[in-house]
Design a protein that fits this description.
By secondary structure, this protein is of the alpha+beta class. The protein contains 22 helices and eleven strands. Strands 6, 7, 8, 9 and 10 form a five-stranded antiparallel β-sheet that branches. It has a four-stranded antiparallel β-sheet with strand order 2-3-1-4, with helices on both faces. Strand 8 and strand 9 form a beta hairpin. Helix 1 packs across helix 10, helix 6 runs antiparallel to helix 7 and helix 7 packs antiparallel against helix 8. The longest helix has 35 residues.
Length: 741
């Protein structure tokens, strides 16, 4: 591996014009594809295997044209103070609005508040339900504009009008904080390298990689049914790892220059050593992201694969475009320790034997490993305590900021009709095999009326064939509450009894039931997913480190950091700690996919630092240093870079906390705090402490396994036999042939 990458790095350095042209062409091609691609259409949200999805599919068959999964909107009206919605002027305004709402080509039906009993008991609040033929993602802008205009006309008539439902679902915005995150990354790079040019390379290549990845996703969005969150996730992860991977290689290049190597040879060795770590670190991230497909939620699968593709692009760019740019820069990129004249007055490197901060910290940990280990483990354990109170759910309009019309509509409906009105349950009764369908419909309704927390049960509405009916159930509690979840399970339990008596099947669906089923599906998939991802990465790290205990320690350290990060997410988004600072207006259950998503992404990112830091330790150990000294050597060369990489990744992820989408905000915070815990507590404190305690045992590998494993040579041992190019640095035009080794 190291020898192949060494040759690749030198080739890219020498043929820099060709390499740069390839990446510019790919970026242009992706950009043209994104600009000319048809706009993304439907982004379907199906959950195969769940009862709610089976009910939706059944409704499509038995109620053709019903558009069971079509977009919905609730236009909520509130009368001025002292007036009622039944007053003549207010009623006329509402009826005019209903007529306007029904004129759209994509509208399936509109329910008049006065004929549909949709006026509150005190007469101050009413609502009109709008059903569309297509899903919220398919809905045309013209239909959304017509909905907004109709609401505005009613406002002009003196009513308070708000619109809820998924018909007005907006694309999330990240705001200026994302730009601030990139700015912080730029500052950290300048401080790390002491050179504007060297600092610019990781930023430039990361932007190129994200540009290619996101443009490709945009170009394929219509064909592959990709949503806006897919590109947001890809840009978030691609930007972070793209900067980090380039940072690793540029840093190693400067270290090789400091040892007196020629620039072409230094580029080759940087790609051969740090590039090997980048390849395996990238593989762990890709495994974690692609592994999300085992959950069998199509949307999550597409998000994972798209983000994994962006990570793969970041790895390829780091291995090829970075050495090409270093070839263009020539002597403007200084050896490690030297500063540019602009930033450091041309300062020369420190004496080689002088310990830096990383080696001093490692020496301290090696002298007191037990104290550092206990402090680190106890600290993460304390941070993880809130995770014991984790409540999972999916966001609804009640979790939106109070500034949105969806949230205000949600609050008005709760005020006028009760909290459960925002999450009605749809009960589907399949009586095709029943001898008395009508009797079955009646019996289901009667059984549900007797359950706890049921406010309203509408009469059964059968289809034309009379073999299937729908019943709407309004709970007494809000959609995201445990009481409503218990009610869903209670109806399903009653359905099993009814099926035994009448041969009629009872299915519960609707957005609330779908959210409950999704949460359960994600919970059930967490352990298998964890076993798959950690297991595959464990085997990969055995190959990289040629050790059993080091990968085991890496996996256990990751579990500590991810549990601590989940604890922090619960404290902020569920308990409300620091919610004002994070601009979290509404606390509540943590998003259902957050645990499994954090397990996947954080594991992959955590292994980046593990691979880069510990490979430097193993490199020193393989070259003859004692285990304790190898730990110090690894920190001397890698601690500064890993620290910079972690700060950059935290800054990039933190930038997404400013998003208006609660899911993106939660993911940004969760990943940022997880990287902080993993990089600065696990990798910088717990890892050296454990390695110091293990000594030589850390690098133990059974002989039979050692013979069976392939030798990937991540440490670059094979490069010791390579001959650098003779003569001076590569010529400016890159015409000299690659020296064959």
């Amino acid at each position: 591996m190291a020898t192949f990458l060494y040759k690749l790095g030198r080739l890219a350095f020498r043929r820099r014009h060709f390499v740069a042209l390839i990446w510019v062409a790919l970026l242009t091609l992706a950009g043209v594809g994104a600009a000319t691609a048809p706009p993304a259409g439907s982004t379907s949200f199906s959950i195969p295997g769940t009862e709610a999805q089976k009910a939706f599919d059944l409704l499509e068959q038995r109620f053709p044209g019903m558009s069971a999964d079509g977009a919905t909107a609730r236009v909520v009206f509130k009368a001025p103070s002292g007036e009622r919605m039944t007053d003549h002027a207010n009623k006329a305004a509402v009826e005019k609005t209903v007529k306007e709402l029904g004129s759209g080509s994509e509208v399936a039906s509109v329910a008049d508040p006065y004929t549909g009993h949709a006026v509150s008991k005190n007469g101050t609040i009413a609502y009109a339900s709008v059903k569309y033929k297509v899903s919220g993602m398919e809905l045309k802008d013209s239909s959304k504009d017509a909905l907004k205009e109709a609401a505005q006309d009613a406002r002009d008539a003196g009513l308070t009008v708000e619109v809820g439902g998924d018909a007005l679902a907006a694309t999330p915005e990240t705001g200026s904080s994302e730009v601030i995150g990139i700015g912080i990354a730029a500052v950290v790079l300048v401080i790390t390298f002491g050179s504007l040019l060297a600092a610019g390379f990781p930023l430039l290549t990361a932007i190129v990689g994200v540009g290619i990845g996101v443009s490709t996703i945009t170009a394929l969005a219509s064909a592959l049914d990709l949503g806006s969150t897919t590109s947001t996730l890809a840009s978030m992860i691609g930007l972070a790892v793209g900067i980090d991977y380039a940072l690793f290689i540029v840093s190693r290049y400067r270290a090789e220059l400091a040892e007196g190597r020629e620039r072409e040879d230094a580029a080759g060795r940087a790609v051969g050593t740090a590039g090997s770590a980048v390849v395996f670190a990238g593989l762990t991230v890709v495994i974690a992201l692609v592994g999300l497909s085992v959950v069998n939620i199509p949307m999550l699968t597409k998000m994972g694969i798209a983000a994994a593709g962006t990570v793969a692009i970041a790895v390829l760019i780091a291995l090829t475009l970075i050495p090409a740019l270093l070839g263009y820069a020539g002597r403007k990129v200084k050896p490690a320790g030297e500063k540019s004249k602009l930033l450091g007055g041309g300062r020369t490197p420190k004496k080689p034997g002088r310990p830096n901060m990383g080696s001093r910290w490692a020496s301290f940990v090696v002298r007191r490993p037990v104290a550092v280990l206990l402090l680190g483990v106890l600290g993460l354990g304390a941070a993880a305590i809130p995770a014991a109170s984790l409540e999972l759910g999916l966001p609804d309009d009640g979790s939106q900021p109070t500034s949105t019309t969806q949230r205000r509509a949600y609050d008005l409906l709760s005020e006028g009709f009760g909290p459960g009105f925002n999450g009605p349950l749809m009960v589907v009764v399949d009586a095709k095999d029943s001898a008395h369908p009508e009797k079955a419909f009646t019996e289901v309704g009667d059984e549900i009326k007797g359950l706890k927390d049921v406010v309203t049960v509408t009469p059964a509405v059968p289809n034309k064939a009379g073999d299937t009916a729908t019943i709407t159930v309004v709970p007494g509690s809000k959609p995201s509450s445990q009481t409503t979840e218990d009610l869903v399970h209670a109806i399903r339990d009653k359905g099993a009894d009814i099926a035994a008596k009448t041969d009629a099947k009872v299915l519960v669906t609707g957005s609330t039931a779908m959210n409950i089923d999704v949460s359960q599906k994600l919970n059930d998939a967490l352990l298998p997913y964890l076993a798959l991802v950690v297991g595959l990465a464990f085997l990969l790290l055995i190959v990289v480190f040629r050790s059993v205990l080091v990968p085991l320690k890496a996996a256990l350290g990751f579990l500590l950091s991810v549990m601590a990060a989940l604890g922090a997410v619960v404290a902020v988004f569920q308990w409300g700690w620091l919610s004002g600072l994070m601009n979290v207006e509404q606390t509540g259950p943590v998003m259902s996919m957050m645990p499994i998503f954090m397990v996947g992404v954080v594991f992959g990112l955590a292994m980046d630092y593990e691979v880069f830091l510990v490979t430097r330790m193993r490199e020193a150990y393989v070259h003859g240093e004692k285990p304790a000294q190898a730990v110090v050597t690894g920190f001397r060369h890698g601690a500064r870079v890993v620290t910079a990489a972690a700060v950059i990744m935290i800054a990039v992820f933190s930038g997404f906390i400013g998003s208006t989408e609660s899911m993106v905000k939660m993911i940004g915070f969760g990943l940022a705090i997880a990287v902080f815990f993993d990089a600065f507590i696990v990798r910088m404190a717990i890892v050296p402490a454990v390695l110091a305690l293990l000594g030589k045992r850390a690098w133990w590998l059974p002989k039979w396994l050692d013979r069976a494993l392939p030798d990937v040579d991540v440490e670059g041992e094979g490069l010791r036999t390579q001959s650098p190019a003779a003569g001076k640095d590569a010529d400016p035009d890159g015409e000299r042939e690659l020296v064959r080794v």
